[in-house]
Amino acid sequence: MTERMFITGNEAVARGAIAANCRYFFGYPITPQNDIPEFMSREMPKVGGVFVQSESEVSSIYMVYGGALSGARVMTSTSSPGYALMQEGISYIGEIEAPCVVVNVSRMGPGIGTGGQAGQTDYRCIVKGGGHGGYRAIVLAPASVQEIYELMQLAFHLADKYRILCIVLSDYVLGQMAATVELKEIKFDEELPDKFWALKGTDNKNGLRYMHVVGFFSYGGVVSWHEALMTKYKKIEESEIRYEKKYADDADLLLVSYGSTAGTCLKAIEMARAEGMKVGLFRPITLWPYPEEALREAALKAKRVLCVEDSNGQMKEDVDFAVRAQVPVDYLGLWARNSDQPQGLIFPERVFQEIKKILSE
Fold it and tell me: What InterPro entries does the database record attribute to this sequence (predicted)?
């Protein structure tokens, strides 16, 4: 029987990572994700793992960088300002193709923001790449505590499958939310490539010495490096797009949302359907690769779209690009919160109000 446990989203991050055989965690405290390193500091030694509290987020991402090059499953977690500090290291990880996982439990920004304020204002820097050099990272966006646990396992699998950084984008609401989770270990039905490149010492490589200097040296030049990675990115775009649709088949209005706000939208959709309104949900699970074609198909069927996010229009750029001006795209952003104070949230009733307004036009 699968064990069930009532846990928070932040604890689901940690438990999912351990279930994925992650045994090295390097991190630095920052709200609202402090529950993750606290849990890891206690539980990692119990499974033969290592927890290191670094002196800064800059240090932690370089520890992840070095650990990943050993072939081990490694990770860090942080929140928005801390993620910003990691960008140089993340760019190096992208260059050297070091498979690892970074979790960002986002909070409202810009700047230092507030540790107790929800928000989805990290979309652009996470999805488009906050560092220099044109690298890509797979970005997974869970919308429930259960999905956090499952996507953590998927993140490590995809990181090893493609030798790439995988980012799990949570947020304040999801991190603090608690729910009953099935702690099931996911079995992936595919063999992962050999980590021939891992630095394990000459004794473990028949006397051979492998070294990493600059990523593009492995490809003979910088242009060849970019071409090789573009080929890999295209393969990911063809194989790893994930999304969820609910009530979309007969919808006259399609809501597009991700993360915790998707749950708010689903409740608003159920309120609308109770009054006979045909409203559906399209939820991207991979923010990169973005489910552009699937969204366009669903949007054209619905004829009108409402993008909802606790932000200032960042995902709307991808929604606009996907539908390519073929249907109207309305937007409901952070100004729809019930309060301008840090505790402000977008509630289902406010989304329902917007639905009624659009459908009455």
Answer: 2-oxoacid_oxidoreductase (IPR052368), PFOR_II (IPR033412), Pyrv_Fd/Flavodoxin_OxRdtase_N (IPR002880), THDP-binding (IPR029061), Transketo_C/PFOR_II (IPR009014)
Q: How far apart are CA 294 and CA 243, in angstroms?
A: 8
User: Looking at residue 104, which CATH number applies to its domain?
Assistant: 3.40.50.970
Indicate the pairing of strand 253-256 with strand 178-182.
unpaired
Integer CA distances (angstroms), 153 to 14, 20, 148, 191, 262, in order? 10, 5, 9, 15, 21
User: Residue 209: its pLDDT value, please?
Assistant: 67
pLDDT for 322-344, tens place per residue?
Answer: 999 999 999 999 999 998 887 89
CA distances to 16, 17, 284 from 43, rounded to whole Å, are: 12, 11, 32
* pLDDT on residue 1: 76
Q: Does the pLDDT at position 210 exceed 90?
A: no
**Which CATH number is 268's domain given?**
3.40.50.920
pLDDT mean over 296-312:
97
Q: pLDDT at position 116, please?
A: 66
Residue with tokens 């033969």: 48
Statement to judge: residues 263 and 232 lie in one domain: no
Asked whether the predicted pLDDT for residue 270 surpasses 90, the reply is yes
Q: Degrees (nearest 5) of the Cα angle 351, 260, 37?
A: 155
Average pLDDT for 47-66: 98
CA 247/CA 278 separation, integer angstroms: 8
Evaluate if residue 194 carries a pLDDT over 70.
yes
What distance, in Å, lies between the first and last C-alpha atoms of the chain? 52
Supply the pTM of this predicted model.
0.96
Helices 9-19 and 145-162 cross at an angle (nearest 10°) of 40
Domains of the chain: total: 2
**What phi, psi does 276 have (nearest 5°)?**
85, 10
Describe the crossing of helices 35-43 and 9-19 by its angle, rounded to 10 degrees: 40
Dihedrals phi, psi of 281, to nearest 5 degrees? -125, 135
